[in-house]
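Known limitations

Structure tokens in this collection are predictions and should be treated as such. Users comparing against experimental data should check residue numbering before alignment. To illustrate the layout, the record for BCCT family transporter is reproduced below. The input appears on top and the generated tokens appear beneath it.
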Amino acid sequence: MGEKKETKKIVFYISLIIIAVMAVWSVAFNDSFTAVSNAAFAFFTTDFGWLYLLAMIVFLVFIVFIAFSKFGKIRLGGDDSKPEYSNMTWFGLLFGCGMGVGLVFWGVAEPLNHYLNPQGMEGATAESADFAMKSFFTHWGILPWANYAIIGLALAYFMFRKNKKGLISSILEPLIGEKLANGWLGKLIDILAVFATVAGIVTSLGLGTMQINAGFNRLFGLPVNLTVQIAIIAIVSVIYITSAVSGIEKGIKIISDANLYVAIGLMAVCFLVGPKIEILNSFVNGMGQYIGDFIPDALRVSTYGDNSWLGSWRLFYWAWFIAWAPFVGVFIARISKGRTIKEFVMGVVLVPAMASCIWGAVFGNLGINLAEKGILAVEELQQVVANPEVGLFMVLQEYPLGFVLSIIAIVSLCAFFITSANSGVYVLSMLTTDGNINPPNSKKILWGIIQSVMAIGLLMAGGLKPLQTISLAAAFPFIFIMFAACAALYKTLKKEKV
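Generated tokens:
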């Protein structure tokens, strides 16, 4: 019995050792860590860019096929099970976990970036504005959510319908057998999932902290320095660890519900004070271009030409979303008991993708409109591109109610930040307690502290970007794990009587 208990803790202990080594390396030897992470990422995106592009399309095709096949009416749980959360709460939880911080961070800065520095055309033109919206929709639309849905659907199915553990390795049991799934291969997969999750959450914590600091600096003159950033992390950490300890039903749900209304309110007011006709035209035109060029854009890679834009944006995002797939997938699975497969896919893929595109049209055009109308000079807009954490606040202040909107944006950012972090704590605790869907509070507190300490250490070393980069390289095997998850899910679904 003692030996079995120790075996269960292997994922926890080995994950902690790997994360500790990475943390020390990235903080104490930042230059070598940066060099190695950049080389690894460049190798994967240069030599396997084609695979990232293909994989994202395969995930979408598979998930749509499963949803609209005869398997779509199968419930994630018993045949008479009902969803644990209302549609609004469910959507708020998965959106906050999967995209929230990223959309607030990049909503203004990314479209401006594509507008000023488009691929293969002149910048700061009407054509580059169209390109900016189409690119944003491609990066934040249906493909990332289809990628999250692969792990989410497979794990929810095996956890709640087949009573398997809440581990990534459980999904692959139909392919590799129970012995390997519970043995060294399963442990390796779960350790990789833990590392990808920690790296992703810590990077988001760091980026979110920098943006909150930039907002306070812009609004109240609070200095941008390490002391303020450590204070922000400390305060936010207390909130997200407390909410994670109180459980999904209480703390995480309350913050997520409140933030959904705050974010919708912020977006609605920004639309009303912003360039309404331009936003609507841009959304309609952008969606038309996005849908019309969907396959060519999703698979576009130059055989002999320059792929630097592709590597900096699309391949970087695809690698990042695949790196986040274990974390977001596990959390989405945990909150989706009782849904049908079709309902799950529609809710996880279609609704958040549409919300992300609407967000991009509103906030992206707040920035692009300032350039087109000559309100901000190109040099000032280049500042937004160079410092994306400041971009949102620079742009909002040029509109009516700018100060109030900036305050609301900081509140929303903090709430998204907390939702991501406490979801991460929950997932890490599940993955390191043998898939326990209600992990002990001691684990949640420990993982919460580890995340915060690592974020502070990396901010001190200026090493956020290298950690993000190494996590993308480390997550490369997840492409194959997710292909295997598709095969395992389909193999098992074929045995269902539907």
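For this record: The chain has a mean pLDDT of 89. The domain at 2-493 is CATH 1.20.1740 (Amino acid/polyamine transporter I). Please report discrepancies through the issue tracker.
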